[in-house]
Amino acid sequence: MPVDPITLTIDDKEVTVPKGTLIIRAAEQLGIEIPRFCDHPYLAPAGACRQCYVQVEGQGKLQTSCTVAVAPGMVVRTQNTSDAARQAQVANLEFLLLNHPLDCPICDRGGECPLQDQALAFGPGESRFIDAKRVFPKPVPLSPLVGLDRERCVLCARCTRFCDEISGDRFLELFARSAGERVSIAAGEDFRSPFSGNTIQICPVGALTATPYRFVARPFDLTSGDSVCQHCSAGCNVRVDVRRGEVVRVLARENPDVNDAWICDKGRFAYRHADAPGRITTPLIRDRGLEPASFGEILPWLAERCRSGRVAFLTGGRLMDEDYYALSKLARTVVGTNDLDHRRAFHGGLAEVVAAAAVTDRERSVTYRDVEHAPVILLVGLDAEQEVPILHLRIRKAAARGAKVFVVHPRRTRLHDVAEHLPTRPGHEVFVLDRIREGVDGESFEARAAAALRGAGGSGVVLVGERLAEHPLAADLALAVASKTGSRFGYVTRRANDRGALGAGVHPSLLPGGRRLGVAGERAEVEAVWGSIMASEDGRDAQEILQACADRLVDVLFVIGADPLRDHPDAALTRRALANVGTLVVQSIELGDLEPFASVFLPAAPAAEKDGHVTDWEGRSQRIRPVRDALGISRPDWEIFAGLAAAMGSDLGFETLEELHEEMASLLAPRAMPERPNVWAGAGPPQWLDDLTLFTYPLLVDEGRLSDGAEELKAALEDPAFAEMHPVDAEKRGLADGVDVRLTTAAGDATVPLRVTEHVAAGSVFVPFNQPGLAANSLLSGRSTASVTVAAVDEGSGPEAVPDAALATGPAA
Amino acid sequence: MSLWFEPRLTRDWDDPSMIGLDGYVAKGGYEALSKALAMTDADIVDVVKSSGLRGRGGAGFPAGMKWGFVPRDTGKPTYVVANFDESEPGTCNNRELVERDPHRLLEGMAIAALAIGCETAYLYVRGEYLWQSMVLERAIAQAYAAGHLGPDVQGSGKRVDVVLHRGAGAYICGEETALLNSLEGFRGQPRLRPPFPAVEGLFASPTVINNVETLMNVPDILVRGAEWFRELGTEKSPGTKMVTVSGKVERPGNFEVPLGTSFRIVLEELAGGVLGGRALKAWTPGGSSTPMLTAEHLDVGLDYESLAEAGSMLGTAAIMVMDDTDCVVDCATRMVRFYAHESCGKCTPCREGSWWATRVLERLEDGQGQAPDLPIMRDLGTNLMFRAFCALADGTASVINSSLQHFPDEYEAHVRLGGCPLKVEHLEEVPA
User: Are residues A365 and A488 in the same domain?
Assistant: First the structure.
């Protein structure tokens, strides 16, 4: 029985719903469909389309069921039992179709269009309209991704309300009035919102269309599969549409526990990488060049090298839970190494205990629902819009419900209009966190955040981004803030299954379930399932593995679903490592930049062709199913690992995904958080340094491999490389907005245009991680921050400068 | 002619000094405000309640009751908004009231503000009313200088600020929730109710919105009392009402009459009868959005109840008179075209239906009408009435429904004769 139950009658059937329920939703519970266009369960009622008329006994006028809440004893008659309601609905559809172009045969929406469906179900059979229809120029590109056909538009205002209420990116608005009213965007502006695609999906007609899907398919040509988006750790539920084996569209699938009804534009529009020209679907082995071979030839060859040599594994963050588990077991029980890591570079900053707690402690971990209902949210070191966009929407939803949001971040985030933001120089988050933990008095940001968290009655939420884990103490301290204020604690990693990798123990010192390798009792729990773990010393982390490769201390390096040349925050070291390692095994869907270094290529299947689970930032494990068959002889990663184990004369103990999953589940079950030492002893006053700190993180749309082929997405949302600097720092150096500057770090230098902006903390310089024009890992030495000097590129002396003599004499003959 | 009653709102219209503060004060201006300052909030509301003053903007909702709905314990400010968006076709009495007597409006607003504990009252002026805005700006400045408005009203320690806001020229902004949106800087489109403005109005705070004429009645009610106010008008519609008479009459203009005065008296005594002594064909009692009536309804009293009984509404009491040379279809076309143009676009029936009705009516008037057009017009009337988000489309429907109800033959003649019977040569074929 719902809270505050209200019982009413709809079409002579009784239904009981919570107080405040709209008639249209109550009817849905009875399976009664009332036609509608403007109504959307995640948007505030509008009452604009007037399609959902019903008769309410005792009311003289018909009522729109999308705006009227139920009342006790209410008697409602829908089109099923009321002639008046039916007549009004037919009449309204006649109105809606007056100016509609009826170009269904060439409309992308044709076949899955609410207007088409409802006109068929509830509308008049013929039009009585004989005059000229209203015309608009069309399609109008709102951005490189979204086209607007105003003639098809029924002005339901779903798109404008989405922009106002959900994303807060208020680009779309209704302009003009009467029959000339139209959806539009300010002159000269692009619909530059990373959530723009949602307006296409909720458009109840074909007015908003996706440029990449325009004229590509008819709904009846598609086969669809339910999946989970692989771009970030949000875990968004999606539907993948495939036409003749090719992915042509991705749509959001509603799941109120995860993504509501939304996905970001990257998730929606970056789907071509699995079909990119670089995809390789057969194993390769380097002979004279890289030659095709069979798994049967390569695995024994590889097994021999693994038996005799020193082996290390680096993975990306987007394999399945099952893949990670199989790898963790392969490394520990067959190959005999703890040199494996899924992270790019953390120097133990996120204490293992914190990681273990994040993986195991369900009681205090955070879910989307917790975020939505939290009265206070503290974000540290996380740019949610760019890193986990759907979490960003949930935080906005919480803010709209009245939550206080505090952000500690070196750069302003898109929560700026709903949050209090403390711009904090990278590395100085610890001082802020320490003051919040102490609960300092006064009116400062820290005092207010501390008071708010304490006052949240245990429902406060602390969310920490993965960059914070780089600082030796920051993540630990954030956990202390959460403990002290009774708040929930979420560690938000960025990549789709970082959390699964951590859980499975693709980590130099953690075993499945966050169990510590170095703690005998915890190791024994794993050995009870696995048998003996061959090496008991903590292994090398990613940076150390690459260093060891560079120092010729590793014979076989597996790079699995990763591109360290782009992603590892030390480009120079990575290059030396790849050049010096004896055998480089690349297991992926493509070779990319690794081609010159690879000894062996093992073709893995991408997510669209795999069965398994992914674990989102909450720790929620979700099943995904293949939407098409694996291409060529590419295989799921776990099968390759099992094959290698067999070739090494061993056995991972499972032959099917089900067997694997069953074994894995026993080790990944929730457990109590282990006791942890309190390492924090107080930070003391911040130490301001004279030089500048460069910091970087990936923006949502960048040169990442998974966005390969998403040209429209990049045209809409990708910026070329830039550097951001605070006006105070710029003035000190005599640098103006827009000039080209040279950034010099210990690792290298680069020239990019400068943006002078107050939206970055003084003393810091931001460069995006991987935009066109600069791979920022060329400036890094294993961490995402570096000491940097910034100087104007002197036109007279820079390397690009043309010698005066050349100008005087013209080009050499 | 001499009047049969003592005029109230118009009693000093002959005195040009009333436009200034001195003239207004010389005639007893701002004494009602002094009196209100000596009263409790509840007493002010009670006097207005017992006077029976009803909203003059069209709906006729009792003003005192509206004030009484405002919750005072929400922790939010309260607001008074004067609706001077006078946009109904044929209506211009607010304009003349303000031009001749601006301080009476300010005094009424200040009293309303005291009654609901409001410190900032907004005056929303129709965009086209530039001169009237200037008159009001000057009056506001004078009232501030003399201490009738501002941080310390007449030395009472109470604050009442008046903020004048000019609209941008949309009919819909006379609808109170659209007006609030416009005032807040948003598109002038109506809001869902509930919440009603009394609970969640301007800036999501409790708000009273009154028509200019309503507020201008308030000072006299405070000074002379509720009983005095009820001496004119009817039991349920007490007081006087400004009527605007336009169209085919000898003397168009604004007239004040006790509510309940018959249309015949207004037409014949005040407006000098139908122009040129021709026959009355049709008239709107309350602006073009109220159903038109005919010569049969000459003796209907101009008050809320009598007009409702006759099938129409008092509305803004803007009487437009059509004589026997006027084509009803032509008049309906102009009116419906206006509502189509002024539809805010928010909801389907109003936006699309009034646009379609205009297409059909223009076609009929141009002689391109076809037999199915008449059932279409009838359906349009049905499908626009009470179907739209706000009452704008009800006005559109009223034009269509009342013209079809009273003059069906004229519509049919447009189809049968291939044009307007009053314009084409076969005038003699018009059915009697």
Answer: yes
Q: What is the DSSP letter of B349?
A: I
The reply to whether B357 touches chain A by the CB within 8 Å rule is no
Q: What is the DSSP string of B259-317?
A: TT-BHHIIIIIIS-SBGGG--EEEEESSSTTSPPEEGGGTT-BSSHHHHHHTTS--TT-
Instruction: Work out the angle at residue B32's Cα, subtended by the Cα atoms of residues B29 and B36, and round it to the nearest 5 degrees.
Output: 150
Dist CA A59 CA B108 (whole Å): 36
CATH topology of domain B240-323: Ubiquitin-like (UB roll) (3.10.20)
Whole-angstrom Cα distance, residue B29 to residue B219? 8
Q: How far apart are CA A5 and CA A305, in angstroms?
A: 68
- Domain range for A209: 104-109+129-274
How do the pLDDT tens digits run along chain B, 432 residues long? 468 999 999 999 999 999 999 999 999 999 999 999 999 999 999 999 999 999 998 889 999 999 999 999 999 999 999 999 999 999 999 999 999 999 999 999 999 999 999 999 999 999 999 999 999 999 999 999 999 999 999 999 999 999 999 999 999 999 999 999 999 999 999 999 999 999 999 999 999 999 999 999 999 999 999 999 999 999 999 999 999 999 999 999 999 999 999 999 999 999 999 999 999 999 999 999 999 999 999 999 999 999 999 999 999 999 999 999 999 999 999 999 999 999 999 999 999 999 999 999 999 999 999 999 999 999 999 999 999 999 999 999 999 999 999 999 999 999 999 989 887 554 455 454
Q: Using DSSP, state whether A27 is helix, strand or coil.
A: helix
A542 and A609 share one domain: yes
> Min CA distance, B164 vs chain A (Å)?
25
Long-range contacts: A666-669, Cβ < 8 Å, 24+?
Answer: A666/A529, A667/A511, A667/A512, A667/A513, A667/A515, A667/A525, A667/A526, A667/A529, A668/A321, A668/A503, A668/A504, A668/A512, A668/A513, A668/A621, A669/A513
In chain B, the residue whose alpha carbon lies closest to the alpha carbon of A46 is: B192
Q: Specify burial of residue B20 (Cβ count, 10 A radius: 0-12, 13-18, 19+).
A: middle
Task: Kindly report the CATH number assigned to the domain that includes residue A734.
Answer: 2.40.40.20
Name residues whose C-beta falls within 8 Å of residue A645's C-beta, 6 or more positions apart in sequence.
Answer: A330, A334, A651, A652
What is the tally of structural domains in chain A?
Answer: 5
Cα separation, A783 vs A760, whole angstroms: 19
For residues A356 and A489, membership in a common domain is answered with yes
The residue to which tokens 């170095």 are assigned: A518
**Sequence spans of domains, chain B:** 16-230, 240-323, 328-429
Q: Are B247 and B281 in contact (CB under 8 A)?
A: no
Report if residue A708 sits inside a domain.
yes
d(CA B41, CA B426) in angstroms, rounded, equals 67
Q: What are the DSSP E strand ranges found in A575-662?
A: 583-588, 600-603, 612-615, 621-624
> What does CATH list as the number for B16-230?
3.40.50.11540
DSSP, res B425: S
| Domain final residue, candidates A241, A274, A307 | A274
Query: Which of A62, A65, A89, A95 should we substitute to test contact with B (largest number of B Cβ atoms within 10 Å)?
Result: A95
Contact yes or no for A179 and B351 at CB 8 A = yes
**Contact flag B386-A62 (C-beta cutoff 8 Å):** yes
- Would residue A144 count as lying in a domain? yes
Report whether A780 contacts A575 (CB < 8 A).
Answer: no
Cα-atom radius of gyration of chain A, to the nearest Å? 29
| Set of chain B residues whose Cβ sits within 8 Å of the Cβ of A180 | 345
Q: Which stretches of chain A sit within 8 Å of chain B by CB?
A: 45-51, 53, 60-62, 67, 88, 91-92, 94-96, 98-99, 128-131, 134, 154-155, 157, 173-174, 176-181
Mutation pick from A52, A96, A153, A178 vs chain B, by most beta carbons of B within 10 Å, is A178
